[in-house]
Amino acid sequence: MPKFKKIEVPAKGTRITVKNKKLSIPNDPIIPFIEGDGIGRDIMKATRRVVDAAVEKTFKGKKKIAWMEVYAGEKANDLYKEWLPKETVDAIQYYYVALKGPLTTPVGGGFRSLNVSLRQLMNLYACVRPCNYFKGVGSPVVAPEKLDVVIFRENTEDVYSGIEWKKGSKDVKKVITWMNKNMKTTIRTDSGIGVKPISVTGSKRLIRKAIQYAIDKKLPSVTLVHKGNIMKYTEGAFRDWGYDLAKKEFGRKTITEDELWSKYKGKAPKGKVVIKDRIADSMFQQILTRPDEYDVLAPTNLNGDYLSDACAAQVGGLGMAPGANIGDYIGLFEATHGTAPKYADKDVINPGSLILSAVMMLEYLGWEKAGKMVSDAVQKTINKKTVTYDLHRQMKGAKKVGTTAYADNIIKNMK
Ligand code: NAP
Helix, strand, or coil here: 353? Predict the structure, then answer.
């Protein structure tokens, strides 16, 4: 066990381990959580209460989460004088499954995104974001229930690799001079430069997870989302490697969209997952106009970032957008949104996104029953029209409640 300076390991609780390449989950798993900055403080409190209530009601005391606070962001800076202490990363790697609130990232300077660092340091290469509709939630589209997708966004590469040089710096001058001289480019000398690496390794492990998910859940299609018409050797290659992997590793269980029409007259044989691809701009319009033709989406990192928020908006906004960062074993579950600082500590924000991320976490633990109890209770609370401000402004005749009261209602509505 790693030695911790500030983290207190709960006296009662057992570590999750890996046995035979699978997570082995005890009845009292120690689960680290990062509270998060801004609204993190409001939503983490509410979420843990909801999860504990569902686990208690489902398993009648036979199972219980032993929460363990670990630190990142402002709280870590107060405690350790660093934003992301090494022991936080060590703890999550050691205990495998963790829940995380949002963390502040300065724009245009300051320190690097802690969220991105966490994903890269632990190789959490798939950002998994389900987007489906809870009945009754207001939506800007006519038929929000038609959208039911799970996004597997690449999480470690692309323009998120953090390789950037500032305009006017010594380093950027070196890069531009070398490029213009040796690669015959004509980059303006007053440019900032960023690098966009996309590898076979990073692409294939992500696409493999997306296809495996579609097979396990018996979903009809996986769509590779890219901008390969413009960035041929990064985004275009991502697409090509995806088709290649589908054929080599899942050849018996997948067909391409071309084959769907050339061999099967547009009707996929039973049990086959159709592998398609869409250019990102086309994907954005298709997800609005023909959402029910898509099931699992596998985009490159930046496209996936945009697409997740756009899909979340279609089904009611960021207050209802859960997510997870998954590696080979580690799962770090977090909402899609950020710290929404203007609402921090006001007890008004919707904790739904973190609560639904915790549902994903419960499913990851194999505690699906408890997860279902939570999502059913969220639906019931929405049916009863007692909701937080974000849902209230989109729903007719609803009653507005704060974060704590909303969580209380979810707990009350558990059966
Ligand atoms: P944001 O925190 O996601 O908030 C943007 C807007 O989204 C809010 O003003 C609010 O809209 C809505 N929103 C967010 N969370 C909501 C919730 N739980 N319930 C209801 N509505 C919600 O984005 P930001 O203001 O651009 O970013 C703030 C900070 O968060 C930045 O430092 C950013 O880097 C960081 N960030 C962190 C993560 C992460 O930790 N993974 C992710 C994204 C951003 P209305 O004002 O319309 O109500």
Answer: helix
Output Rg (C-alpha) for the chain, integer angstroms.
22
Q: Tell whether ligand 1 has an atom less than 6 A from the beta carbon of residue 308.
A: no
Question: Among 346, 354, 365, 336, which residue's Cα sits nearest to residue 46?
Answer: 354
- Closest by CA to 306, choosing from 188, 199, 151, 412, is 151
Distance 243 CA to ligand 1 centre (A): 35
Rounded distance from Cα 103 to ligand 1 centre (Å): 10
pLDDT 10s digits, 321-363? 899 999 999 999 999 889 999 999 999 999 999 999 999 999 9
pTM higher than 0.90: yes
Q: Which of 160, 294, 343, 406 is catalytic?
A: 160
C-beta 338 within 6 A of ligand 1: yes
- 7 close to 34: Cβ distance less than 8 angstroms: no
d(CA 327, CA 119): 9
The stretches of 81-226 forming alpha helices (DSSP H) are: 86-95, 114-121, 170-182, 200-216
- The CA-to-CA distance between both ends of the chain, in Å, stands at 38
Ligand 1 centroid distance, CA of 349 (Å): 10
Q: Report the alpha-carbon distance of residue 68 to residue 16 in Å, rounded.
A: 13
